[in-house]
Design a protein that fits this description.
Number of domains: 2
Strand content: 5-15%
Bound molecules: uridine-5'-diphosphate, magnesium ion
Radius of gyration: 26 Å
CATH class of the largest domain: Alpha Beta
Shape: elongated
Largest sheet: 8 strands, mixed
Structural class: alpha/beta
CATH architecture of the largest domain: Alpha-Beta Complex
Number of strands: 8
Strand order of the largest sheet: 7-5-6-4-1-2-3-8
Helix content: 40-55%
Number of helices: 11
CATH superfamily of the largest domain: Spore Coat Polysaccharide Biosynthesis Protein SpsA, Chain A
């Protein structure tokens, strides 16, 4: 794309800005991650150091660890790291466990920098592609998605459930990138736009797509978790999937309407049939099956429908309360120590 050189001052300032080192903060949510923190910090700090030396990152770049109300020694480890690497390692501690999505949101609200990269503490997502993300950002992309190449290191169960989830999401009209979790880079203005989405039921992957701007993808292989164990149980994964679907799609409500219509047609057909039998054959006793089957069938659909509607009503209930999505207990090395949830 040839740049239009109509406004000389603007284009020259743009091109010099494109070559200037950028300040990037790596945002790492941590919940009971005491075993992995040391290694994670070492890898991420080495990466920043190398990029600063190469002149791509400014010395103001840093790592922000967000302790999501851990019950182990995670916070003590983080404090030690901030002392050992002043300015390079910053920290925020939430008042209690708020969940991965909200820990990320807290980090994005608090972190300084021209661009922020979110990455899980277990480094299952390969930090080696962060330099590529930074390159894409310097090329003028506002959002860079880390996309997993294959899921060989995940269990068959996790692959199956994740595959079903992405398929369902897309079928229901939510624009999600398959095999992209929460490993991505966002520019300052993309973050500002993201923070202006005030929904209490937060499914970041979906909201980031709504933010728009110029986006790119980088591809990597996902590693197995080195130490510690997954903090996502099956019920939590199911909760995230339901959250994702009901936050982004009213398709389940439409399915209910369609089911309602179908059962009504069915009921009319049964009525006609019963009437014909009753009129043409006075001695006929209506069968047990034709009575009981429709009752159980319709009862099932009714309960299912109520459940789905309840899911959305629950969402409305939570949204109307407008509770803060995260509460910061304490920060180390961050400007504006107590930034509240801005919405
Ligand atoms: N996490 C968090 N709060 C939670 C659960 C998880 O901040 O309530 C963090 C966790 O420390 C990790 C990231 O979210 O950095 C992803 O969690 P995990 O690796 O356990 O999930 P998985 O990779 O198994 O999906
Ligand atoms: Mg993980």
């Amino acid at each position: 794309m040839p740049p239009e050189r109509t406004d000389l001052t603007e284009s020259s300032s743009l091109s010099s800005a494109a070559n200037a080192p950028v300040a990037v903060t790596l945002v790492v949510p941590c919940y009971n991650e005491e075993e992995v923190l040391e290694d994670t910090a070492r890898v991420l700090l080495a990466l920043i150091e190398a990029q600063v030396t190469a002149g791509r990152l400014s010395p103001a770049s840093s790592v922000l660890f967000v302790d999501d109300g851990s019950r182990d020694r995670t916070w003590a480890r983080i404090e030690t790291l901030t002392v050992r690497h002043p300015g390079r390692v910053t920290a925020a501690r939430l008042s209690r466990n708020m969940g991965h999505q909200y820990a990320l949101l807290a980090g994005l609200s608090l972190a300084p920098g021209d661009a922020l990269v979110t990455i899980d503490a277990d480094l299952q997502d390969d930090p080696a592609v962060i330099p590529q993300m930074i390159e894409r950002f310097r090329d003028g992309h506002d959002v860079v998605y880390g996309v997993r190449r294959e899921r060989a290191t995940d269990s068959a169960y996790k692959r199956l459930t994740a595959g079903a989830f992405y398929w369902l999401m897309r079928r229901m009209g939510a624009d999600v990138i398959a095999n992209h979790a929460d490993f991505r880079l966002m520019s300052r203005r993309a973050i500002e736009a993201l923070l202006s989405f005030g929904e209490a039921n937060l499914f970041l992957r979906g909201v980031v797509r709504l933010v728009g701007f110029k986006a790119a993808e980088v591809h990597y292989d996902r590693h197995a978790r080195q130490t510690g164990e997954t903090k996502y149980s099956t019920p939590q994964m199911a909760a995230l999937a339901i959250e994702g679907i009901t936050s982004f799609s009213v398709a389940p409500l439409r399915v209910i309407s369609a089911l309602g219509l179908l059962t009504s047609v069915f009921a009319v057909a049964v009525t006609v049939w019963v009437l014909i039998v009753a009129l043409t054959n006075p001695s006929a006793v209506p069968g047990w099956a034709s009575t009981v089957l429709p009752i159980t069938f319709i009862a099932g659909i009714q309960i299912l429908s109520l459940g789905v509607i309840g899911e959305y009503v629950g969402k409305i209930y939570l949204e109307t309360k407008r509770r803060p999505r995260f509460i910061v207990d304490q920060t180390i090395g961050l400007p504006g120590a107590q930034v509240p949830d801005r919405r």
